[in-house]
Amino acid sequence: MSVSSEHIVIRGLAVYHPEESVSQDYFIQQYKKKGVDITNLLAYLGKENRYLSTDPEETTLTMAIKSAKKVLEQEGLKGSDMDMILFASGVHEYHVPPDSCFLHQAIEGKTECVVYDMNANCAGMVVAVDQAYKAMKANPAIQYALVVGSERMIQFTKKIDVVNSCNFGDASCAVILERTTEEKRGIARSAYATVSEVADMMQLPYQGMSKLFEPSGSLEDKKIWMHPEYNSLASIPYAVNNIVSLATAEGIKVIDIKGFFVSQASLKLRELLSIQLKVPINNIEFIGNEFGYTGVSSPFIAMHQAVKKGKLQKGDWFVLWSVGAGSTSCVILGRF
Predict the structure, then answer these.
(1) What is the 3-state secondary structure (H, E, C) of 214-226?
(2) Fold match between 3-180 and 186-335?
(3) Cα 101 to Cα 153: distance, rounded to the nearest angstrom
(4) Secondary structure (3-state) at 323
(5) Cis (ω within 30 of 0) for the bond into 140?
(6) Torsion over CA of 158, 160, 164 and 169, rounded to 10 degrees?
(7) d(Cα 44, Cα 118) in Å, to the nearest integer?
(8) Angle between helices 60-75 and 99-106 (to 10 degrees)
(9) For the chain, what are the domain ranges?
(10) pLDDT tens for residues 48-68?
(11) How far is the C-alpha of 206 from the C-alpha of 129, rounded, in Å?
(12) How far, in Å, CA of 260 to CA of 282, rounded?
């Protein structure tokens, strides 16, 4: 069988989140004590509950290991079966060595394995899946790839940052990509849009790593800084253009796409995509009301939930899309 007749499919997904679920009432009461009413903000974001760990030992990395082990067990595979491991996050626990080495160690990966970290902020896991897909298409020796997205953003959020502190949730998602000869399945195309003019509108650590250990300023000051005019909705026209272009190139209509699994940053984002793409809003999965905004993993948790509910089945067309600070965004079109 030639490489051209082989396809790269999403074989399975698994999600890990802490057991502790926090309702919006917790945040409403916390800010009410400060004289701030966040009821309308939470409605705009679409956030009702989210999972937040109370374990001081829980990290981006520990969550990633748990979701990775979960998907391997679910799919009846071992760490040693993986030919490629990519770990995507905006807040990696380690820079040296890469978190992916710890992940490789934890699942007992084999020596002959491509291993690296990915940071495209909230677009990172979509980008990582796209890179893994392209590497697999180029290298027939890669049968399986494990892509994990994980982050605990709230611990890097300033106490006075109302928007982010009310939005973030803790979670990780792991995906296994597999080479197959199954027809009418597989990742088909991808497209990117980068608008770097806004690169200075969000920073972590504030003023950069070189200033992180300087004695001036508190650690609180060095947490996420976001410009008051930062607007994630500005990326929507680029997403719409990319989705339409990819569908056209593949010879399908946007309405043929069964599921849209996109950034869960806000409910408004979902509404605008539905209007501009002219697709039913229920085709755009929203799980932010249960999970909060989990950043890099959020489109894949949405896909995972749709698969669990039977809303996305083998052969269905899907879109994955997210945008990261900077800003850069990636769209993937494929058949599940």
Answers:
(1) CCCCCCHHHCCEE
(2) yes
(3) 22
(4) strand
(5) no
(6) 70
(7) 30
(8) 40
(9) 3-180, 186-335
(10) 999 999 999 999 999 999 999
(11) 29
(12) 9
Q: Cα separation of 267 and 232, whole Å?
A: 12
What class does CATH assign to 3-180? alpha beta
CATH number of the structural domain 186-335: 3.40.47.10
**Token output for 52:** 């937040």
Q: What's 112's DSSP letter?
A: S
Q: Which of 261, 64, 287, 283 is nearest to 169 (CA)?
A: 287
Which residues 6+ apart lie within 8 Å of 313 measured at CB?
A: 336
Tokens of 15: 């999600």
Which residue(s) pair with 179 in the sheet?
Answer: 8
SS3 call for 78: coil
Q: Read off φ and ψ for residue 258, nearest 5 degrees.
A: -75, -40
**Closest Cα partner for 287 from 301, 275, 297?**
301
Per-residue pLDDT of the chain (336 residues; tens, 9 = 90+): 455 689 999 999 999 999 999 999 988 998 898 889 999 999 889 999 999 999 999 999 999 999 999 999 999 999 999 999 999 999 999 999 999 999 999 999 999 999 999 999 999 999 999 999 999 999 999 999 999 999 999 999 998 898 898 899 999 999 999 999 999 999 999 999 999 999 999 999 999 999 888 888 888 999 999 998 999 899 999 999 999 999 999 999 999 999 999 999 999 999 999 999 999 999 999 999 999 999 999 999 999 999 999 999 999 999 999 999 999 999 999 999
Which tokens sit at 26? 């917790």
Residue 310, class by beta-carbon neighbours within 10 Å (0-12 exposed, 13-18 middle, 19+ buried)? exposed
CA angle 222, 295, 264 (to 5 degrees): 130
Distance (Å, whole) CA 254 – CA 12: 25
